[in-house]
Every structure is written in structure tokens, then in C-alpha cells.
Amino acid sequence: MRKYLAQIILIVFIMLASLPAFAQDKASKATAAGRPASAEAALPKPKFDVSRFKGPIGKRYVLPDGMILLVKEERSLPMVTISMIIRAGSVMEPYKKAGLAHLTAALLTKGAAGMSAMDISGKIDFIGASLGVGGSTDYAAAHLTVLKKDLDTGFSLLSKVLIQPTFAQPEIDRTKKDIKAGILREEQSPGYVAQKAYQKMVFGEENPYGRPVEGTAASLDAITRNDIVAFHKDFYVPNNCIMAVVGDITPAEAKGLVYKYMGGWKQKKAPKPSIPALPKTALRRKYINREVTQATILMGHVGVARDNPDYYKLYVMNYILGGGGFVSRILNTIRDNMGLAYNAYCYFDARKYSGAYTVGMQTKNDTAKKAMEETLKIIKNMKAALVSDKELSDAKDFIYGSFARRMDTDSKMADLLAQVEFYRLGLNYFEVYYNGIHNVTKEDVLDVAKKYLHPDKMDIVVVGNLKAAGLK
């Protein structure tokens, strides 16, 4: 499935890993409570150090122009990483201009302040830095990693890309063509086809969570240069930005760079998103015929937003149910015990304004019905009885340990800091995270399973050989 630039430049922490290709992403790249962890579940558990969860994870400043600046000093290497979130995701674009946010972000490094795309990439390569900008559903993101000695050069380029993009018509036409070609390629993937149909079914086509972040060929054709310029003018303003800086730098140095290179960036009140009402949870079906040997199945319904107070309970519950890979109930039963699927998983994709609860799997066409039926039974059983002490303990141990992997580089930490601010999780986030997981009981797991799992009202999408699968 498509790896958008936003998903490449964002090393997303545990709630956001592996978002659907046209969603966050990524993203937001988002936040996903208990994404599939098949690969990680097989890894040895890192030693858990609770002391890492104590105290604030960085220093926070509100600058005069309204930008939020977060700084964490890490002196081990002479490098600095800057991760920015701009509230300019596809939630901000008009439905008929789907893809506008993604296109705008993609064009920022294609020309700025009199420099061509080649000029920008050449300057970045010369100093051995990396610079990228990408758009997702909840936000756009910019990322810069640079040696301390070249920080001025890198920061200058970052500021020009964000503030003074050229949006040259030839680059607009070329980028649209590339995106359309990518859409055509993705349409050959059963996984992409299933995800696209599933998101539309769960959220509705006009909801930004229900359509591809890159838009469609028709919606891209409807986007003009004036649309792009206006979108940039409305949303790429300092008071709409979060900047996280991690590495060999002090807060005073970070502020000085912002004032020096972004001091002329004028603040402006950005428009608020208009999110359509979600369709009611219902039993909907969409079967798409493809001459393939395996059926791709997605089942689910509307889930929760990231600020849901039951988030951590859901995270633990989902890990036991299907987010824990080989140790989860779904994969253990569907793959190991019954041999119905190579991979099966579930997750709560909790984003800024909403999310979905999704169960996914691939299976032979002739076992598709059986795999779905058995998976629904497992979900129903999750709502019927308490989990075991071992299941709860193992889930917590793995979640604690795997969290350390989400902050073991400056780049990951910068992305994490920015998202903690974006989702309003607080600078004591590590402590809140630890306590949130630690305090979950077996009764909590059962309560949230009963409240948030609706196996009798799941939307289902199947992409496969429908005749072989016995589906109409």
C-alpha cells in the first residue's frame, strides 16, 4: 500500500503505527490503539525502566506569533531534529477539492524563495541533511534532520519551504500526474481497494476520514493553482503550527532560530474544520470481485477519537484480542489453531476527530466465510467473559517494553513530542501513559469490550474471487 511522504517522515509512536495508506496516516502517521504487532510480538521484551516515565518530556513555549515550540536537549550527538505539525490536513479541505491538502504539502519542496526543487534538494544533500513535507488527514508534517554545524542552513531552507513556496504551474502539473499514476498503481492492489471501500463505508464519502488523502483523478483535476495558494495562505501560519526540536540545542538557541528565520511569518486565524456527521453503525456489505487467490477482508465500524477517556483500556483490550500478533486471540485461533489465514489483526484507529475499529485478514477465497464467522465468534467471546490474569499481565509487559522503541532516536522523540502537543496529551504524557496502562483491570477490559465492540453491526468489505468464496 502507498507510503505517503507524511508516513515516511513521521516515525509514529505506538498509537499511530501502520495507518491505512490513504488515511493518516502514516499518519496520523494517528492515533491507532493497538495496531497489529505481529512482528514486534516475536521480539524479546526490552527491560522496562519505569523511571523513564517520570517528569516532563520536554520544555514548552508559546511564542509571540502563536507558534508552539517544544524543546528537548539530547547532547549525545552533534545533530538536531525538527518535527513540525501544521493543522493543514485533509480535514481542512473542501470535499470537492479532495487531495488539496496532500498536494499543497507535496509542492512545498518543489520550489521556494527563488529556488527550484533541484536547488532545494541540492542544498540539503550538500550538508548531508534530510528535509521533507507531507500531508495526511489530521495534519501536514515537516521534518528536518541536520548536523549542529549546519543548523542555520537547514533551518533557513525549512523556513523558506514553509513560508515562501513558489507553486509553479509546471510543478503542479507534474505532481498531479505523479499522484494520479500512484492512484492507478494502487488500484491494482486488493488491499488498497478494500481499504478505500471500507473507509468510505464506515465514515461516508464526504467525511475526510472516508476518502483517500491523495484525492481522486477527478478531484485533482478540479484543483487550481489559486486553490493551492489560498489553502497555503489560510493554514500555513505560525499560530497553526507546532514545532518540536530535539538534539544538541538549548531552548534559547531554538527560539533564536525561529525568531531569525521565521520572524516575518504573519499569524492569522485559520478556519476550523467542518466534519460531516458519521453514518450510523449498521450491517453493510460490499463484495468486490478480483481474480486473485486470496481474499482480503476488512470488518469494523466507527470507533473512538484519541481523546476518548477509555483509550488506554481499549489499547490493552485490543492487544489481547488482535493487536498482539501471535499472542492475540484472533491470530492464535484463526491462524495457528484453524489454519484459516496467514495474518489476522484488529485495531482502534483513534485520530483527532474520530476513528474506526477494524478487523483485517487475508485468507483463501474458499475459506473467507469461515474465517469471518470464526473471527466474529472470537469478538463476541471477548464481550462475554473476563480475560485471564496471564493475558492481562503479558499485554501490559509488552506494551510497556515496546514503548521504549518509540523514543530511542532523536527523530522519533521529535515526532512524539509534536504529536503529544497536537493531541493535547500533556508534557507528563509518559507518566499518564504508564499509569493508563498500569491501572487497567480485567473488569475494565470486559467493560470496554462490551461498550465499543459491535460484532453484530460490522461493515464488511471483501476483495477476492467472489465465486470461489461463495459470496454475491
Summarize this entry quickly:
The chain is of the alpha+beta class.
Summarize model confidence as the mean pLDDT. Answer: 88
CATH topology of the largest domain: Cytochrome Bc1 Complex, Chain A, domain 1
Q: Which CATH architecture of the largest domain?
A: 2-Layer Sandwich
Radius of gyration: 22 Å
Number of domains: 2
- Unreliable stretches (pLDDT < 50, length at least 5) are 1-47
CATH superfamily of the largest domain: Metalloenzyme, LuxS/M16 peptidase-like
Largest sheet: 6 strands, mixed
Terminal CA distance: 26 Å
Structural class of the secondary elements? Answer: alpha+beta
Q: Which quaternary structure do these chains form? A: single chain
The top-level CATH class of the largest domain is Alpha Beta
Beta-strand share of residues: 15-25%
Silhouette: globular
Strand order of the largest sheet: 1-12-13-11-14-10
Helicity level: 40-55%
Q: How many E strands?
A: 14
Instruction: State the helix count.
Output: 18
